[in-house]
């Protein structure tokens, strides 16, 4: 690049090596260049998923100042700054194999635009070099051609600017910079030196230099560009910028202006520091800033009094140095604030979680045995020695890490007691794991008996469940699968239904083909076939030779019931399909029209009212079966109250009052419903307690559980938005169908039923319109029946409203299993399975997120999902406590 | 069981694979702008037509189920009509299943239906050729240990693998790579095709591998 080299070495220019922070991918780099902030910093606080850049940026400031901006090049800019450019031509960077067209597309506008001169800022983003790097690497012969092409472009722009400068008083500024570098293989994204270092050349006639003046390129941060540009253009510095002014650029200006610019920059940085760091006063940068501000004041006073004196200049350069120091400190402490992960605390947490998971997994064979006892072997001298050793090692590590770490660390800032507790827990868990492992290894014959290990036979349903769980866990590593997690669950639930339908067909059409005919000896392999009908499922075919002696349904079913059994999976599938089109969620297809939007639009209020009333009716019909008469009445009144509440806040209407104008907050109606909810829950608890006292009364306990369940349903009906009421109705319908026609006749075991409940619960979480995005949480649920914001009830109600699907399915599970008398330990099995099934994704996800913490989407996709997972884990814990309580009552009964 | 049988099976399967490969290359000689991704629907029609034709021809030439009795012309005609009806029914029921799985109900109906057609061509047509319009036989073949010949065994394997292929083909759809083959239903049809081809390749090998263990009632 001869011309550029000439400019850098001799011309009126300043050149730097700008360091880009990882991830070195185009989009965050453009953000860094234009906002001066580091990606992942403000994104957390701001709206998480908006594709357009909402933060303050140079572009936005320039637009606000009435500058005319023209852009040609990479389309990302157009997406990031929609409506900011008066003229643009975006080139999609999608087809990497093309490296001429993308650049010609930019260059063809150049002559016209340069001649026209009706713009203030012209941004050109050439993609060709990046594309060549992607195709053939940094040593490709194509690179030379491309660089000379770029050089000629630069020359064209520069000469045109120079010729124009004679007419206008202000000098123009030509900035040549790269968004990221290129690694040895020609790609980019990580943090190697080649990828991180980018050129930054500022060319302007204002930077005139004398012949002997050799300027060595300094190392600066890429984020400094935003501040420099803003100051050069006379704009306010973007609010979230952490960059500092590139001082050589303003060196030629009078002292007063230099100080003024530096002051602007430090003030902006200090403001940012104040917003983000609680103890900002102690920050050395802040102290420096205070001091330099004071000195600056002195200087100004002196400056106003007398001019051109030695003292003034000396003091001025002192202030200058002070400011530069302050800038450096502030910038440093701000970016350190940003790019830091508290690795030590993260590791401690992950280790504890993993230990618990390992313990759970190791106890699978024990827990699923008939008796379901979970004895924890402890108290052998070897293990206690190990325990103390581990504690010692851990505390040593803790002391070393906490004293050596220069950065603040959450775990170190905990009190010693809490930290010690965590360490004791971790080491105790480790010892338990080791002892369980030795038990398993020593008593090697125990696992052979259990039903889950490979020696036993799996039905295709078990296989599907295992594969589905594994697949879901694996899918959490991909950001798109996290964004579209609902698709995963819908897919799994559909496949589950098809597998169930296949099972029903096999049971009813083929009778009992459980025992393999003797003539056909087939070794274990993939020849056991799907007994699917020809049109049947294409998915549950991954099956193994089963022959687990599926319970021959000896009872002869009457015709109608048989058909119901055969049809019920298809009915459930149809319900799921309907629910799926009710709320479009996720990211890619979220804009698609759905029934929910159609219903909530004000033109369709009548339809919505009918639908809501119908769903409430269905809910009543389905729930009242198991209730005692008193709670039946309470339920009916409560559901009426729900409708009245929705009518009062104006989302549905009564047929006799078609257009009521008076819209209240519905406080009275909502509280009316709350009374019934509490009443039903209370009767349920009373029944449960009574059943515990009167040991023999098994029936009473079932009724009590069902009443608790119906209380929760009523609460959900109150909290759900009216267009979501069908979700509740269908959920109850599916539960009834499954209970009557699938679980009872097919006699699945407790583990299978638990996993199915879990899957359906997850699917209903998304049917409600939730997603892995904070924006979809329905906060209005927290205000139902409350005048003002009261924190605890609001949080509880919102949490219940969001997780109503999983919670309702879990409580149905409790009721279903305790009403089934066939197996005593079903509940504890179920509890164990539920905990396991929930904790596997969570713990895997924690590990994944820890390793992906420099991923591009860590803040926008992965961290909200982590919040959801954490919340889900809390709910699961509550459910498991409920399970255990139920199980305890069973134990005390017997 | 004889090795000649397995050899015949292998040849027929190779012919089927060859027909699929032909369906990719032949149309580009006659049609302009033909490519699998861009003119996907055309390819779907052509491919399903090829596979159906090859299956029918093979059935007429090889006659795997020699046990079927000779019958009158009218019987044959009704049989053929029945087969057609079964084929259509399977297409429609596949379509219903795809919609239940989340395919759009109204838009892209033609695409979804053609996917159903090609999946039927991979699964239902061989079944119809081999077993005829006989639901009992179908249930027998697709139930555990119900197969009575290597033909039925390979039928089982190819059918299952095309289903699995179609199922797996749906997985990349939510990914944000924005590739042209991620559009519905291209990834699924490609998955089904690959599954079918894999089944065609695997089944003779698998049968050959396990020929010692496999004993059939009728042999």
Automatic annotation (TrEMBL), chain A:
Q: From what superkingdom does this record's organism come?
A: Eukaryota
In what pathway does it function?
Answer: Glycolipid biosynthesis; glycosylphosphatidylinositol-anchor biosynthesis
The residue ranges of the GPI ethanolamine phosphate transferase 2 C-terminal domain are: 560-877
How does the protein associate with the membrane?
Multi-pass membrane protein
Kindly give the CDD domains that the UniProt entry links to this protein.
GPI_EPT_2
Where found? Endoplasmic reticulum membrane
Q: Which residues cross the membrane?
A: 343-362, 383-401, 413-442, 463-482, 606-623, 635-654, 666-683, 703-720, 789-810, 831-854, 866-886
The protein's UniProt keywords, in alphabetical order, are: Endoplasmic reticulum, Glycoprotein, GPI-anchor biosynthesis, Membrane, Transferase, Transmembrane, Transmembrane helix
An individual GO BP term:
GPI anchor biosynthetic process
List the Pfam families hit by this protein, alphabetically.
Answer: Phosphodiest, PIGO_PIGG
GO cellular component terms given for this protein: endoplasmic reticulum membrane
Q: Which InterPro entries match?
A: Alkaline_phosphatase_core_sf, Phosphodiest/P_Trfase, PIG-G_N, PIGG/GPI7, PIGG/GPI7_C
The protein's GO terms of the molecular function aspect are:
CP2 mannose-ethanolamine phosphotransferase activity
Similarity section: Belongs to the PIGG/PIGN/PIGO family. PIGG subfamily.
- Please identify the protein, giving its name as recorded: PIGG isoform 6
Q: Which organism is it from?
A: Pongo abelii (Sumatran orangutan)
**Name of the encoding gene:** PIGG
UniProtKB/TrEMBL annotation, chain B:
Transmembrane helix as a keyword of this entry, yes or no, is yes
Pathway given in the UniProt record: Glycolipid biosynthesis; glycosylphosphatidylinositol-anchor biosynthesis
Q: How does it sit in the membrane?
A: Multi-pass membrane protein
This chain's protein is named: PIGF isoform 1
A GO CC term?
endoplasmic reticulum membrane
Q: Which organism is it from?
A: Pongo abelii
Q: Name one Pfam family in it.
A: PIG-F
Q: Spell out where the chain crosses the membrane.
A: 9-29, 41-62, 83-106, 112-133, 154-175, 181-209
Q: Which InterPro entries match?
A: GPI_biosynthesis_protein_Pig-F (IPR009580)
> What is the primary gene name for this protein?
PIGF
Q: Which GO terms describe its biological process?
A: GPI anchor biosynthetic process
Which compartments does it reside in? Answer: Endoplasmic reticulum membrane
Question: What are the protein's UniProt keywords?
Answer: Endoplasmic reticulum, GPI-anchor biosynthesis, Membrane, Transmembrane, Transmembrane helix
